[in-house]
Design brief:
Number of strands: 55
Oligomer: single chain
Mean pLDDT: 76
Helix content: 10-25%
Shape: globular
Largest sheet: 8 strands, antiparallel
Amino acid sequence: MLRVFILHAQNVQTPDTDVSDAYCSVLFEGVKKRTKVIKNNVNPVWNEGFEWDLKGIPLDQNAELHVVVKDHETMGRNRFLGEARVSLRDVLASPNLAASFSAPLLDAKRQSTGACLILQVSYNPPPGAAPLFPPPAPPEPTPAPIELDTVTDTAGEEEAEDHLGTGDEAEPSAGQSASDQPSLPKKPPSHVAHGAKRRRSPAKKLLSNKPQDFQIRVRVIEGRQLPGVNLRPVVKVTAAGQAKRTRIRKGNGPLFDETFFFNVFESPLELFDEPIFITVIDSRSLRTDSVIGEFRIDVGTVYAEPKHTFLRKWLLLSDPEDFSAGAKGYLKVSLCVLGAGDEAPVEREAADDKEDIEGNLLRPTGVSLRGAQFSLRVYRAEDLPQMDDAVMDSVKQIFGFESNKKNLVDPFVEVTFAGKTLCSKIVEKNANPQWNQSVTLPAMFPSMCEKLRIRVIDWDRVTHNDVIGTTQLCMSQVSAPGGELEVDDGLGFLPTFGPCYINLYGSPREFTGFPDPFAELNTGKGEGVAYRGRLLVELETKLVDHVEQKLEDIPADDILRVEKYLRRRKYCLFAAFYSATMLQDVDDAIQFEVSIGNYGNKFDHTCLPLASTTQYSRAVFDGCQYYYLPWGNVKPVVVLSSYWEDVSHRTEVQNLLLWAAEQLEANLELVHLALKAKCSAGDLDTLVARLIDEVIADCSQPLVDVARKPDSTHLDQYLHRFRTTNLNQMVQAALRLKHEDSDLQMVLDQAEDWVSRLKSLAEEPQNSLPDVVIWMLRGDRRVAYSRVPAHEVLFSRKGARCCGKNCGKLQTIFLKRPQEEAMGPRVPVQIRVKLWLGLAVDEKEFNKSAEGRLSVFAETYENQTKLALVGNWGTTGLTYPKYSDVTGKIKLPKDSFKPSAGWAWAGDWFVSPEKTLLYDVDAGHTSFVEEVFENQVRLPGGQWIHMAEAYTDVNGEKVLAKDEIECPLGWKWDDVEWDTDLNRAVDERGWEYGITIPPDHKPKSWVPAEKMYHTNRRRRWVRLRRRDLTQMEALKKHKQEELAGEGWEYASLFGWKFHLKYRKTDSFRRRRWRRRMEPLEQTGAAAVFALEGALDPVRPSALPEHLPFLLNLRGHQEGAKGVGREVGGGRPPGFSSTGGCPCIHTRFMAGPVLPWGKQPPLEDIFGHVLEAKLSLARGQPGAASGQTQLQACPLLSWRLEVESVQPQSSRQEARPVRVLPAHSRPGPGEDLGPPLRLKA
């Protein structure tokens, strides 16, 4: 085995004035090896080793190495810089079969170039081979190579093909030296003492003085708690006379994750006394104090460890000149010293929450840490989701015991810091538990552990515990080290927090008995997709001499003290959806859900039912690649009311600082663009002057004085003082730049520092407002989501700068799928939405950002039937009310409605057919495949016969036979006849087979092979049709006649899918009547926030007492008339049972007030429904890219409280009645909202 170590070269010059990008190639017996490229360096340092396997053949004494040094060129050929031929005779003559060479480089004319190459060569002969020459006297010890600093090339470039050489190998990729390849010696050493101890005096006697091959590996992982402001740290590692540096990073907690290899050929006696220096340097500082901290360890100390390795250890950095100065930060590294025959241990990544950081610390002698303890007070939690199955709860309910599915959770809190964990007590069967306990954990201060993990867990008696949610307190956000500012004003403070709520996020709240596919999100891995409750905590840190870990109860006086932080205010959230485009995989109807915290989740039965979803709508093909929702000039609106703490004094400061940072970024971008455009010096000076002036103005804005706020915490006061001092320093620095003649690059660098500084100051750890979560639902499945921070859409009376950047503004949001780290190639959907969030007392301010016209519609359906014998449409034989709700069960005459307070009728009743879901699915396509399924049935083992419903669609709903299907107007058949689809999992005749298991009426799955037990089979018939351009005029005229018709919707039976065109088999029809309500002029658009439970229709006198009564509420927004097609999609599968209604209605049941948990009698149940609409003025954003986006009306579901009034003849007092959703009941103490009064 022949080994060659290319160390470095000196004075490598190019023929011109350019600085070389040198690399070295070594050729031995036709096999070439090549080093990495060292850029812009006339003294390149490679420190790379290569091996040639001689395959048992002894080395020839006349063998030589051919070494070539070239200049790497990204374009064209690499330039020749010099070559050398090294004879290996001296290697064979050496007693240890190793030699060092300083080879002069020659040009093509064999003349000296003035450069030289330093390399080392060693040879391992095959077993049994005798030396060719007698060993001479022992030579002098090989001098260690001089210390040379170099920055390795990490550009990641691919080496161009070298046309001057003889087939160069590909250059190693960036950040990975050639020594990453297997280069460790295979022959075990014979005189190395593996058990060398750290006390060197006795150990030296056991160490060999024979030079051997060693490799020192240093992996620099990350740093934490590095002191300073706006750092750009770089780590310098020095070992065995070689030095290497990492890439430059930013911040006080940089992540490096770089590995360095130091190959040395030295005796253990000398090498083990060599130190390894690991120094963290501020790359931006050229002063003597640029060293942030340093750690020193001997090579022998590392080699004496098990497996000669320190794995993932934290190094306590200190001042190399003064150890008494204390800790200077922490650096996480792995150190490894490998000799011949040693194997590098496998490094396993440990989770941060399970890592014992305090026990993994290497601390230099003379540097001490102070003991500290974190006291986390855990008071209570709210809105925890259901975590346990309700089987036993249902059994209790059957036997008459009280049941509450809302409290099927047994929570406790787990607190982890620096590898130490402590848990609170378990509170059984409570979704709003109160622990009132203090968790005390010991720590060493300052601690390198950045995060205090708080986890809420559901305790299970039988199975394993389930994580409800995980949150973390970042120490860098709730504390500040003293002297962090340029002038030490004593602004540092120990970690402190609250009392304040922390929001938990994770997987969707709705409980199922199946494994949760997103359960990993509850552990804090990845972005949580749903709100899972909130936790009230308080953190206090004390420096103590004696640390201990304990759990104790909080005194009653401290519990009462927290009550002042819990005052709730009512918030109003408005969301208007303008468009939804770039849809894919639209196999079902689409709707959007908006929620904030525990308000608005439609699937969670423990949540309050609110108007949180838009109407279901079918997507329409845009003619190119994507689908969009046909909303057009009618925009869906969602309005929510919720109750949270008033944290305006925190969010206003946060938005003010973010606004200043964004303005500075925008001005900085203008300067960079001017530089790229090569603008004149005068224009650049103007832009720079405006940048500095705006920085001075923005940073001079006064912050909210939290000292006058009764609910301000200690952290609020610390952060106010910290932020104020930072802003004042930025103003002073900007004034100096303005009045001094400063270099442009220095101004730009300073501006970039200001941007990062402002963003760091804007971090608000005590923002208890949950994020606004927008979900896209396909049928009943959640598909994609987006989390919008509440402060970004929050309104403030302090001015536009204190409002959220997107408050009342149209924004574009790309939704993403759960557990999707980055946006993939397939975007689920792009929405354009306007959000406004504010206190209820500020709801009138919403009128300033409202667009268009706000309306509310009352609606009722007129029903008719046609008897086979009579043949005329009418009410004869009608089993449903003449005027009813969409389900046909509740009688709703037109005269039973009256406008609510703040609203007035705008016109009379008019027919308004629902078109959104009644159009065909071929809209937007130029070609379409018509399909129909032929069905047959049999008894097991019998003969196949046609079913009563011989032809159905893919969902099993009855359709016309294939021979009766006519080509629609505007289309023409492309296929002459119907064909059987054989391009599926079917048999040779196109049949697929299944079995029906009661109570189902059709198979749930189909297979292509027939079995004796199969009872159903079907096959798909297809026929292609295309657009007929010659019939477009007739089609347009037909559409106008259809819209100008009487607005009837037809169906074969009530509950089946409705359609606009009459068919022979239809026996039922209906049409929708509407009447518009508009807000009074003095209330404006803000009246939409008063709709929740505030509508006051007159209960019709014809209604008998306790008869169900339904009032339908919808909100939507009207825009300009769209141009193009007015198209829509078919009804979503699974929703045809609602009588063809284009949306799913939330039922509200009301009955006499009973004790909580008791069911009211069925005869006392009644409900109520209304509808809301918002209109946009002409010219507002509507269709995009020439396409019409017709918009569907969303359903707004409202919590109502109804007071039922008995007829006067009964002479009984009115009975109060509460309105509850059919699928949910409020828990104890829940507010039912403002009342709705029904009058006889």
